[in-house]
Amino acid sequence: MRELYAVVHSILLLGASFVLSSPGGSAATLAGVLPDEIDRHYAGGVELGWLERGGGRLELQRTRELLVRFLAPAPARVLDVGGGPGVYAGWLAEQGYEVSLVDAMPLHVEQARELGMFAARGGDARSLDETDESFDAVLLLGLLYHLTERRDRLLALREARRVLCGGGIVAAGAISRFASVIDGLVLSWLGDPRFRAIVEGDLATGQHRNPGDEPGWFTTAFFHHPDELAAEVREAGLELDVLLAVEGIAWLLNDLDERIDDPDRREQLLWAISALEGEPALLGATAHLLAIGRRADAAERR
Ligand SMILES: C[S@@+](CC[C@H](N)C(=O)[O-])C[C@H]1O[C@@H](n2cnc3c(N)ncnc32)[C@H](O)[C@@H]1O
User: Atom 1 in ligand 1: which residue has the minimum CA distance?
Assistant: First the structure.
């Protein structure tokens, strides 16, 4: 959730219509997939670099740790949907995974392609071009919170399930419903009536809005109650393996970079987070949640 507040972004309005060639040669027109304000948020390039420091660095480290735990060993086929500039896709490709990335933001697809390590194309998570049962894992990391309507999140989860092979997993990330009130408290922002109003909306409905495009207050998103994420994964026809806290309470520490840099303190940090990662009483206190869903039916057919 520091993602929401850690960056000052310049705004670069891109053209209204985007046409990107997919690796297969077909073209995907992405106009209108992302609401304008989400497009403006990412158009400044904020996503690249965010995972390099503080809370973002912890999110990256922990998400990698969890992916290592749940992914089939390389070379397995991984589809990174809403994969952004390819931070996870690039890392997985380095480990020997066969990775494809899909994203609705042309800038991110371009940045992902520049890594030159995997296929990247423009597309909409709610309607994927990929064929049925063609991947061992689908990543939805940071995607679901931009689908603010439940029916759209279910479409994306069902598409992920469709392209999964039997026994394959979906790793679905979300922002906690309570992240903005906690962050507002830590950063002393609750005294600002505009931020307080945003937090009140988040708590009441999960619908996060930043009407003034205030830098650092993120953009249009849905913040999940942990129970909602679990329910959506199940409703999409997946078995819920686990629901875990990515950063747990540790995202509140103000010296994360120092702790991560020191091997002994990093070990203590990561141990404490994993000791509490599945505790239902604490799940809402994390910034990001990660649900692991499994396609069980096809596995039984094998
Ligand atoms: C918070 S970023 C996460 C990027 C990357 N997965 C990560 O965790 O670092 C969310 C990404 O989802 C993409 N996105 C949002 N809605 C989408 C949709 N309907 N279809 C495909 N991508 C979408 C955005 O363009 C953005 O790149």
Answer: 142
Residue-wise pLDDT tens digits, 207-238: 999 999 998 899 999 999 999 999 999 999 99
Q: Which tokens sit at 116? A: 């030159």
**Residues facing 121 on adjacent strands:** 102
Q: Strands (DSSP E) along the chain, which ranges?
A: 19-21, 27-29, 77-81, 98-103, 119-122, 135-140, 164-175, 207-208, 221-222, 239-245, 288-294
Gap between the Cα atoms of 224 and 284, Å rounded: 9
Shortest-distance atom of ligand 1 to CA 156? 19
Q: Is the per-residue pLDDT at 19 higher than 50? A: no
Nearby residues of 133 by Cβ (< 8 Å), 6 or more positions away: 162, 163, 164, 165, 166, 298
Average pLDDT on 147-152 reads: 98
Nearest CA to ligand 1 atom 2: 142
Atom of ligand 1 lying closest to residue 139 CA = 6
Q: What is the rounded distance in angstroms from the CA atom of residue 282 to the CA atom of residue 267?
A: 21
**Most informative mutation of 105, 115, 139, 290 for ligand 1 (most atoms within 8 A of CB):** 105
Residue 97: per-residue pLDDT: 98
Q: Which CATH superfamily is domain 27-301 in?
A: Vaccinia Virus protein VP39 (3.40.50.150)
The reported pLDDT for the residue numbered 297 is 77
Residue type, 68: V
- How many angstroms does the Cα of residue 103 sit away from the middle of ligand 1? 6
Cβ(39) – ligand 1 distance below 6 Å: no
Ligand 1 site-directed mutation target among 1, 59, 143, most atoms within 8 Å of CB: 143
Mutate to test the pocket of ligand 1, among 1, 50, 78, 103 (most ligand atoms within 8 A of CB): 103
Cα separations (Å) of 79 from 82, 97, 154, 163?
10, 10, 17, 9
Name every residue whose Cβ is closer than 8 Å to that of residue 188 and which is 6 or more positions away in sequence.
Answer: none
Ligand 1 center to 23 CA (angstroms): 19
